[in-house]
Amino acid sequence: MARPEAFLDRVRQAADELGRHVRIMEVCGTHTHAIGRGGLRSLLPHAVELVSGPGCPVCVTSQRDIERILLLARSPGVTLCSFGDMIRVPGLTTSLVEERSRGADVRVVYSPLDALELASREPERAVVFAAVGFETTAPGVASVVLQASERGLTNFSVYASHKLIVPAMKAVLEGASRIEGFLTPGHVSVIIGPEAYEEVAQHYAAPCVATGFEPSDVLEGIAMVLECIAAKRTGSFVQYTRAVKPGGNARAWDILLRVFDVAEAEWRGLGVIPGSGLVLKEAFAALDAARRYALPDLAPVQLPRCRCGDVLKGVIHPPECPFFGNECTPRNPLGPCMVSSEGSCAARYKYG
Ligand code: SF4
């Protein structure tokens, strides 16, 4: 693999050729942290502005879903399982970690399979897995739903708030972000394939480059986006060729679509986006926690002060939030973007 310096030269050359300011969005929390960890922002020409987008699964989960998950955690007899970042996300009045300190049975799991096995081991508990994530995590959840169904595990259910990335990219482009090109998420691109971005790239003339996670990958991805913009060329391209293949992973899609229907979903900051979420098919209604526990619909709600929505839309950078680094820190987060290990506020706070 070529050294990062070689790609940095390419970035500088393309930026010179373009000769103006340009905004590029990375749509992946792992990219956001790789960029911060590698100090890449400070290496780029001033005219190249990197903006973090809606790529952190915990961060994009709507506040309404967070409140409904908190209701589930307070339901008698329920063991609420989720990933570690989720339990610290602030609700309007409480969080999962606070509910745990008051006696709720809230457990951190590392995979949906852990939650399934817990349900199998403790049949007297009603185990609910609060599932968030993009096309990368949804097939694993689908697999667990199929297993629960086949094994007849009646004490297991899923609260699904999965998201699909391409409709969110369209919503970003329709908004006020002034994004001209994307580094698209390497892991998601492995599943959906590079073709999935082609319509966005063509319709909005915004080149998309599926990019890996090493500093040299990210710099090459940026160089590819800049070269496209400078040459007025658009399309969906692949930098991360060692993992992203044409057509994506058909098997993962197959299992996902056996369990979920594509539906509208509410995103933090971006609102309700048609075709951007996944709901359990009718055949798995018994495993759908939202239906099993008759959760109220709840009106859309927002955290009163946090500006995560504007951060996720690419309208502001984290330090432009008035609470960044003073009232809001990783020890005392006011919003999910400062909580999550993939959040852009957490990355800026950690790496500067
Ligand atoms: S700094 Fe804190 S309050 Fe501001 S947008 Fe980020 S998470 Fe929200």
Key terms for this structure?
alpha/beta, 2 domains, 5-stranded parallel beta sheet, 4-stranded parallel beta sheet, Rossmann fold, globular, binds iron/sulfur cluster, 352 residues
Description:
- By secondary structure, this protein is of the alpha/beta class.
- The strands form three sheets. A five-stranded parallel sheet has the order 2-1-7-8-9. A four-stranded parallel sheet has the order 4-3-5-6, with helices on both faces. The chain has a two-stranded antiparallel ribbon with strand order 10-11.
- The radius of gyration is 20 Å and the shape is globular.
- The mean pLDDT is 95.
- The structure holds iron/sulfur cluster.
- The site of iron/sulfur cluster has 15 residues, from helix 15 and helix 16.
List the helices and strands and how they pair.
Layout: H1 4-18, E1 22-26, H2 29-37, H3 40-43, E2 48-52, H4 57-60, H5 63-74, E3 78-82, H6 96-101, E4 105-108, H7 112-121, E5 126-133, H8 138-151, E6 156-162, H9 165-174, E7 181-185, H10 186-192, H11 198-203, E8 208-211, H12 215-230, E9 236-238, H13 250-259, E10 260-267, E11 271-280, H14 289-292, H15 308-312, H16 336-339, H17 344-351
Parallel strand pairs: 1-2, 1-7, 3-4, 3-5, 5-6, 7-8, 8-9
Antiparallel strand pairs: 10-11
Helix pairs in contact: 1-12, 2-17, 8-13
The chain binds iron/sulfur cluster.
Question: TL;DR of this structure?
Answer:
The protein has 352 residues and is of the alpha/beta class. 41% of the residues lie in helices and 18% in strands. The mean pLDDT is 95.
